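Researcher: Next entry in the queue.
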Amino acid sequence: MNFDLVLLDIETQRDFFVPGGSCYRPSANNVRRNIYALFDWARENDQPVVSTVLRIPGSRIGPLAEIPHCLEYSLGERKLHKTLLRPYVNLGLRNSTDLEADLFDRYRQVIFEKRHTDIFFHARAERLITELSRVSFVLCGAGVAGGIVQAALGLRNRGFGVILATDAVLDLGSPRAKMAYKQMYTKGVLFAKTRKIITPPPRLVASPAFHATTWIGR
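Model: Structure for this entry, 218 residues:
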């Protein structure tokens, strides 16, 4: 499969986005709608998707709030139904570097489960991402000061272009969110509204020197 863009969704789980979820807040409704719009765009345009799911053992509080969230086997841990793109494969929690070849030739979406917010703590996820060539990532999900900023900075440090869908990310009220946005901006992450990302023609190029992504024809 040939592609220039990959949708990366971080922790799009019920505890953050559905009423009754332990970390739900009303502002999540608009964010959820924009995440769904990105998935519709990915589905219609054959864009591959990489997803992460946070799974916290029941005896722990979790990294994104001071209340229990994303507890293993709970309803709140489940991924939003509309953020599943068939056919998909869930590679689970196993933190090893073994990985089947050409996953995106067989699956539209690759899901990684993790105990920590940082996607690059997952050896399989890091291998899959770093073996991709000359692509840019569209980033959405929950935890601006957690998995979102960690993924964005990790991708930039590895030379990938990153577009943050600013209206498709949830900060969960963290006091570190403002600093997270500054860090991403300083690292060259492009900020864009979902509408700008999904409205054709979203032609993007990545500088070979540092994969600095820029919009063409805007």
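Model: The radius of gyration is 16 Å.
Researcher: Noted, moving on.
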